[in-house]
Amino acid sequence: TLPEPERSELDAPGFDAEAYVQGLLERESLQGLLKIENGLINEIRGLDGEKKALVYDNYSKLITATDTIRKMRTNMDPLIPTTSTLEPAIAHIAETAAALAETLHGRSEKVNEEGDGEAMVRKKQQRETVRWVLAAPDRLKTLVDEGRRQEAVEDWEKVRGLLGKWKGVEGADEVEAQCLKIMSEGTGSDAG
């Protein structure tokens, strides 16, 4: 890589031309000013030459790219009849693939449905168990109010066993507190 040329103050982003010229006039002699002018003229000519070289280089690349595209088109023209006969064959392959995919998808759904049946039954049972536990406070209150204390105690034992497994689950502590309150309202000794 070429070393980067030194940046002069002319290249600075906030360059002020008037201040630059005024500064040169104040500190340089006539000979110094002419030397700086010659340097600037040479720099301008160099930049101009570089610009022309870049334009020529890019123009050459454009001509080469145009020639390449023309050659590709010329080479593709004899293939056009071949590609037009391939179109129906490709369409037939696509239709066959779509039909196979649909058939396989239908079979995989059937297999999934059969395998998911057990999982769905398990989920349904779990939901019913949760509902049964959440309904426990009302059920226990009804049993206690109707004087069916022994049934309430048996029900409470089952509910308490499940709640013990559900420690930390949101809402489990609240259900347990409600049930304990209901069971302790009657005879406190049966509740725990």
Summarize this structure as a short list of keywords or feature phrases:
mainly alpha; single chain; 192 residues; elongated
Describe this structure in words.
This protein has 192 residues and is mostly helical. It is 80% helix and 0% strand. The protein contains six helices and no strands. The chain has helices at residues 17-27, 30-76, 80-134, 136-145, 149-165, 172-185. The protein is elongated, with a radius of gyration of 46 Å. The two termini are 88 Å apart. The mean pLDDT is 81.
Distance between the termini: 88 Å
So what's the overall shape? elongated
Mean pLDDT over the residues: 81
Order of helical and strand elements: HHHHHH
Structural class estimated from helices and strands? mainly alpha
Number of helical regions: 6
Write the layout of secondary structure elements.
Layout: H1 17-27, H2 30-76, H3 80-134, H4 136-145, H5 149-165, H6 172-185
Helix pairs in contact: 4-5, 4-6, 5-6
Short description:
With 192 residues, the chain is an all-alpha fold.
